[in-house]
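Posting this for the archive.
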Amino acid sequence: MRTIAAIFVTLSLGCCAYAGLHAENITCRIEQETVQRFSDAVFPMVLTGKKRVTVKILGAAVSQDFPWEATVSKPVITINQESQTFSADVRVDSVAAFWEGKVAGRLVISYDPKKNVVIIQVADAIVPVTIGALTVEIDVSKEIPDLSFQVMSPQLTIPFRGKTIRVQTKPHIEFEDGAIVVKTDVAFAVK
């Protein structure tokens, strides 16, 4: 019995906890506050990029790349069942323009089973910059690096009384108000 208990202790290292002998045996919660504190540590961030602008002049299309630099600071992370969002203060400087204000985007949160990490990406954080008579939309989220959280969900092989037990896990992500929840189904197979 002690060896079986040791298997579950091994599986529950990190932020995971054993929840029972049925589907979703292991649950790992990453609280919104944890993601917020991590974001506070990595921001402010200075991002750079180029935006291609095309205008028609006398029936001909003329394109030019405008370099831009954006400072993104004071991020606010919100996670609930219906949506996962990101907002921040942004200041954009370009050759012919300047913009400062709040930008809102969404979070794309996924699980990478090969690396055992929850990956948080910022998407659709659009800044409307006016260059002359044009308003150009710059998506600063394309330059924000992914935020990753390591989650313990190992694939193990454990010797037990002359048998080799293979522990297989199948994690998936759900959302609760104020948390990312990684739920993991566990299966045991004898090799």
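Residues 1-22 have pLDDT under 50 and may be disordered. The helical segments are 2-11, 32-42.
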